[in-house]
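Recap slide: 3-hydroxyacyl-CoA dehydrogenase family protein, sequence and predicted structure.
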Amino acid sequence: MSTDQQARGIVVLGAGVMGTGITALALGFGLRVTLVDVDRAVLDRAAAAVRLQLRHARMMGALPEECSPGELVTALTAEAAARADAVIEAITEDAALKAKVLGEVSALMPAGVPLISNTSGIPIDELAEAVARPQDLLGTHFMNPTYLITMVEVVRGPRTGDAALAATLELLSRVRRQCVVVADSPGFVTSRLLHPMINDAARLVQEGTAGVADVDRLMEGCLGHPTGPLRTADLIGIDNLVDALDALHERTGDERSRPCALLREKVRAGDLGRKSGRGFYDYGEGIS
């Protein structure tokens, strides 16, 4: 990649939990990032959250010491997509909204630049109907926190071209992510396995079989889950989890993916996990 290309950097659409995390990761490896959102207050909070994540990542040795952080630019429009090396869409897990945003930004982009939808389970070929060049579209599923979890699920849609896939794998290699390329399918691999399991764990709490901490302790101690499913739900964001489960249930008909009443109650109450300060566990003031 030339010096000029390095200077162009990437565009991240959406300054929520995942957009902020992806931005922090890229900056930590020296890439220039334009972070786009429609709300200036959201962008201001995201910039502060990015700085915090970069500090945490450096303290934990998750970023290269020899690399100076890249430049962060925030914007209310996606005009920078016209001159980016890649565009990563990381807005809320809503298929219609993702399709609308992807369609709009693809019209700004030159041919051959990867357009990457970060999604936990919406089929890429479904989103490809909305974009100008389906061959440039593919998916990623980053895990939160992005700077600690080095594995990334990469989703190749039926119409994804070789060039877009190769360029995306090169970009992920630059930020030292390990990639597993999977075929397009609702939920792909990780969400198809993880999300119904979290739903089952919440249902056990709802039914009174065990408490939150006990479910997590058993999954950690007996089955080797690193954090427990309910603490993982808090990290994902319970609203994001419910949206992803709804999408999975709609597309597969799997009843294990129909969000249980306890999950829906927490969303209605605003108990969304770490980002709101309370989910299955309490976190004080929460994380932006």
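Residues 3-183 form a domain with the Rossmann fold fold (CATH 3.40.50.720).
Confidence is low (pLDDT under 50) at residues 1-7.
(End of recap.)
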